[in-house]
Design goal:
Layout lengths: L2 H4 L12 H27 L6 H29 L2 H24 L5 H29 L5 H30 L2 H20 L13 H14 L1 H22 L3
Length: about 250
């Protein structure tokens, strides 16, 4: 640890003293709340359909499958390009998809296949956002505060999982499904503004690694690193049953 790291304040909430982390973390919380609310809204849209059991479960599959398929590729892209710009583009993408969901649902022009396609498209953006945000933490806080920043990030994920579906349920009961999609689109604005206002210091990452070699390197690292394999195994043990519960929330 360097002397500058030792002089930094410590504690579980120390990262909040850094303005960039505080605002971007808040934006990520709001974006995650919108994502989980939108998933429940999409599930509820066809709750009275004769094939509701299949459609509702497929919505959860469409929302989470992109993380399995594209997270590693998204991580490679986040290492190769400016992470601030990537996050900004993803938020604009989220706003466009959520607005389209809202408008088409309000017009009554949302068949199940189109709904699943748009939910999957939203999941692709989520895979890119998470894979870009997590390595960005190393730029937002010093090394001595990194563990606290990671814990706060995990707290935000679980808070969003609890609050997002609850908000969706209240909104659906009062006004129906389309406003849930509108809320998700609106919640992207905070992070967009925070990213625009953030003056990221230039980062010298050296020559850009080619996509496929970088992908293979990441795969080899995971395969040969016991700690990472253990973390992934524990994550799978949690996510597999939890995803089934989220699929059945409606």
């Amino acid at each position: 640890m360097t002397q500058s790291d030792q002089s930094e304040p410590s504690g579980p909430f120390a990262p909040f003293q850094r303005r960039a982390f505080r605002w971007l973390w808040t934006g990520m919380v709001l974006a995650s709340i919108g994502f989980w609310a939108q998933t429940v809204g999409a599930q509820w849209l066809f709750i009275n359909d004769p094939n509701a059991a299949t459609i509702v479960s497929l919505v959860q599959t469409a929302a989470t499958l992109p993380m399995v398929l594209f997270a590693l590729a998204a991580g490679v892209l986040s290492d190769a390009f400016d992470r601030r710009r990537l996050m900004l583009y993803v938020q604009l993408y989220f706003a466009a998809v959520s607005t389209l969901l809202c408008v088409l649902t309000w017009l009554g022009a949302m068949p199940p296949l189109l709904l699943l396609a748009l939910v999957f498209a939203n999941g692709v953006g989520s895979a890119m956002l998470v894979s870009t945000w997590q390595p960005l933490l190393t730029e937002l806080v010093p090394r001595s505060q990194l563990a606290a920043a990671i814990r706060l990030d995990m707290v935000s994920v679980n808070v969003a999982r609890a609050i997002g579906p609850a908000i969706a349920g209240l909104v659906i009961a009062a006004w129906g499904v389309p406003p849930v999609f509108a809320i998700n689109a609106a919640l992207t604005l905070f992070l967009i503004v925070a990213l625009i206002a953030w003056r990221r210091k230039p980062v010298d990452t050296g020559p850009r690694e080619r996509f496929l070699p970088a992908l293979r390197t990441g795969g080899r690292y995971v395969r040969h690193e016991p700690v990472v394999r253990l973390i992934l195994a524990r994550l799978a043990v949690f996510v597999a049953p939890a995803t089934a519960m989220w699929a059945l929330l409606p």
